[in-house]
Design brief:
alpha+beta
DNA sequence: GAGTATCGCGCT
DNA sequence: AAAGCGCGATACTC
């Protein structure tokens, strides 16, 4: 089946061809070589780990488009569909290996890393050479714009000489297929869509390349973001190994904890309902769920019921004919928990302490509020509050982490899990991680220790973990030239003690001595300083700071006192305070800031008529300079580090904003430590700073060990 | 049943 | 009225 479509669009000839025949590809291939092209893979879904290729769309110089079909549904005469393979994978590999190995042509794609995964995993083709990614370019040109391909075509239609075309969701689908399944769309519209994507991608590159030059973003794009694609691609492909036995053990342990806590909470919840409401009919609909037990249920003089964990749980029927419903208290429901926590317990809080409220105006039933209640409950603190906290912690650990690990671990690669590191996930230029997110693995407390012990080096390997210390404060010192900060870093002072001394109106040396003497007050003040550094760097307000100290440090002060502490902080770091003022003025005048790589953070809200929206924009801008520059710096280090580690037989596995987790053959561990030191502390963008950064690397068999 | 909004919580 | 994320569960809508 060969289909030619050629039509005129203004003066431009657009040609499309669906190719299902091996020989046709072989004939055309020589005409494709040596020319810039855009490519776009169509796949069964959006997971590069589990989904597979359906076809390859190409745009040769934006003029001729092809859709090379690997697999698609074919309609039979009896209207049934047959999933048909046209050009087999092995053939595709032979046909396309040369094309993707060219070093002298531009290969353009939208979110190229995604396509590269399929090309490698399914066709064994390692994309090398001059890659241009229109998603990244769009993001770097304007981080506030939508950067989906269709959004961009709509946005820039006139610039790239293309009309908007049907969105994916608007394509026709065969019966029984979801809108998200490419194979569920008839071949012609599907291929047309794919080829337009490729064509648009090709044309966008021309426009974006010029934009990058015009806006002075070439360095940021070509030297930082584009090379990062290859670094991240290798990290993602490698994955990180799990101690799967330990995951299962933890699962068992925490399931017991969760179940025990759930039972207590459910009991307390039921009791609350039955005492609050005299009649079952008055208990809100929220608490009645479908009864799925044996029929008919028990019945006594109070009505139908069921026994659960040795307790009588009532059933009811809204009408005589409707199904039984069973009274349920679900600790995972914030609405239900709210009733239990705030109607049942009667804890008096000091007037200066305010609980957090949610959007609906209700008191939130989150960890912070419950801890605050517990703190003020005095002697007879309701045991149920701590049970709720126990349940929350255990269920979070199980559902978000343990379950996911068991589901995703790859038995063919030492039970590794694969994540995606996204370069377009943030507006500041940090990376984000998804599917699963490996940047929010617990790190504190028992759960943190257990969670990170699960991440291990493969056999005969070691994990080498490098960590910048005080990265954001150091970058702040660079930008602000704050004397206190610069001196403190130069003299290797303890920043938390320094800030703590400002709060306590003490001399640095005195607090240091107190801390070193082991006096609990020294420790407490250092902890306070630590909280302060974290909270105040970007200008947390007095209210929030007060709450924050209460929750984090159990420190009870008035809003006025909180304000005094903030003033003390701002006075101590006067240079930083002045710098923030200068940035504020700049943002309100210009509506943007730049990071150390020259990347922009645009803040249109700086011109908003409402004061607090402008203030938010200013805080975001100050944050973006610091956070974004940190992001740039660690990426720059990774670009140097990655090939160096590779030469040792190692690789970078994870990046967690100021931390790199790497893996090397065990005999190379000490060499890797030196490499990490070299690249994190003195390679690339870090050299632009007026003070050194300090990153230290250490070796271990697990993520936890290597940091301990 | 699928999709969406909200809440809540893990990380730096 | 710190910033920046991703994700899971529930409640609700279509």
């Amino acid at each position: 089946m060969v289909l030619y479509l050629t039509f005129k669009k203004e003066a431009l000839i657009v040609s499309q061809e669906i190719i299902t025949d091996v020989n046709r590809v072989a004939d055309l291939m020589p005409t494709w070589m040596g020319k810039d092209f855009a490519f776009d893979l169509e796949t069964t879904g959006i997971s590069w780990v589990t989904d597979s290729i359906l076809g390859i769309a190409l745009s040769i110089e934006g003029e001729r488009q092809y859709y090379v079909v690997h697999r698609h549904n074919v309609e039979q005469s009896d209207d049934t569909l047959v999933d048909t393979t046209f050009i087999p994978k092995l053939t595709l590999r032979h046909l396309f290996l040369g094309l993707f190995s060219q070093s002298d042509v531009k290969m353009i794609a939208h979110n190229s890393k995604f396509d590269m995964h399929f090309l490698l995993r399914e066709l064994g083709i390692h994309v090398q050479g001059m890659l241009f990614d229109t998603l990244l370019a769009s993001k770097i040109i304007d981080e506030n714009k939508e950067n989906g391909l269709k959004d961009l075509v709509e946005l820039y239609a006139s610039k790239i000489d293309m009309d908007a075309y049907a969105k994916y969701q608007d394509l026709p689908t065969y019966k029984g297929y979801k809108k998200t399944e490419f194979i569920g769309t008839p071949l012609e519209p599907a291929a047309d869509y794919a080829m337009k994507d490729a064509e648009a991608t090709y044309k966008l590159e021309k426009f974006f390349a010029k934009q990058l030059a015009d806006k002075g973003l070439q360095e940021a794009y070509y030297d930082l973001w584009q090379p990062m694609i290859f670094v991240l691609f290798e990290m993602e492909t490698k994955g990180i190994a799990l101690n799967i036995k330990m995951v299962h053990d933890l699962m068992e342990k925490y399931q017991v904890i969760e179940q025990n806590a759930a039972l207590e909470v459910r009991k307390a919840g039921m009791e609350m309902l039955l005492t609050t409401y005299k009649r079952l009919e008055d208990i809100p609909h929220l608490y009645w769920s479908m009864y799925r037990g044996v029929m008919p249920p028990f019945e006594d003089e109070h009505g139908p019921y069921v026994m659960e964990d040795g307790f009588r749980v009532p059933l009811m029927r809204p009408t005589e004919r409707s199904a039984y419903r069973v009274l349920t208290f679900n600790p995972g429901s914030s609405a239900q928990l709210n009733d239990l926590v705030f109607k049942q317990t009667n804890i008096k809080l000091p007037p200066l302490v305010r609980l957090k409220t949610n959007k609906a105006g209700q008191y939130a039933v989150d960890k912070d509020n419950i801890e605050t209640l517990l703190y003020y409950a005095g002697e007879d603190r309701p045991r149920i509050l701590s049970e709720i906290l126990t349940w929350k912690k255990a269920s979070k650990f199980i559902s978000t982490y343990l379950k996911r690990f068991i589901k995703d671990a790859d038995p063919n690669n030492f039970y590794s899990i694969y994540t995606s590191f996204n370069q377009d996930g943030t507006n500041t230029g940090r990376l984000s991680s998804s599917g699963p997110n490996l940047q929010n693995i617990p790190s504190r407390g028992d759960v943190g220790q257990e969670a990170r012990q699960v991440f291990i080096a493969r056999p005969q390997h070691k994990l080498v973990v490098g960590d910048y210390s005080q990265m954001e404060l150091r970058v702040m010192a660079h930008y602000s030239k704050d004397e206190q900060l610069l001196a403190a870093f130069a003299e290797n002072k303890d920043l938390h003690i320094l800030t703590g001394s400002a709060f306590a109106q003490m001399e640095y040396e005195d607090l240091l001595a107190l801390y070193k003497s082991g006096d609990p007050r020294g420790k407490e003040l250092r902890q306070l300083g630590k909280t302060g550094n974290f909270a105040l760097m970007y200008g947390m307000g007095a209210r929030k700071f007060q709450r924050y100290l209460l929750v984090n440090n159990g420190y009870e002060i008035t809003v006025e006192e909180a304000q005094q502490w903030i003033d003390a902080f701002n006075a101590m770091y006067a240079g930083a305070t002045a710098w923030k003022e200068r940035v504020r003025t700049f943002i309100l005048k210009n509506g943007y800031v730049k990071t150390i790589s020259g990347r922009y953070r645009n803040l249109p809200d700086a011109f908003h008529r409402e004061r607090w929206i402008r203030d938010t924009a200013v805080r975001q801008g100050i944050n973006a300079v610091i956070q974004g520059s940190c992001g740039d710096i660690i990426c720059s280090a990774m670009i140097g580090l990655q090939p160096a580690l590779k030469a040792l037989g190692g690789s970078i596995l994870l990046q967690v904003h100021d931390e790199l987790v790497t893996e090397v053959p065990e005999e190379q561990a000490q060499v890797a430590v030196v490499l990490m030191d070299t690249f994190m502390n003195s390679y690339g963008l870090v050299n632009k700073l007026s003070l050194p950064l300090v990153a230290e690397a250490s070796v271990g068999d697990s993520w936890h060990d290597a940091k301990g």
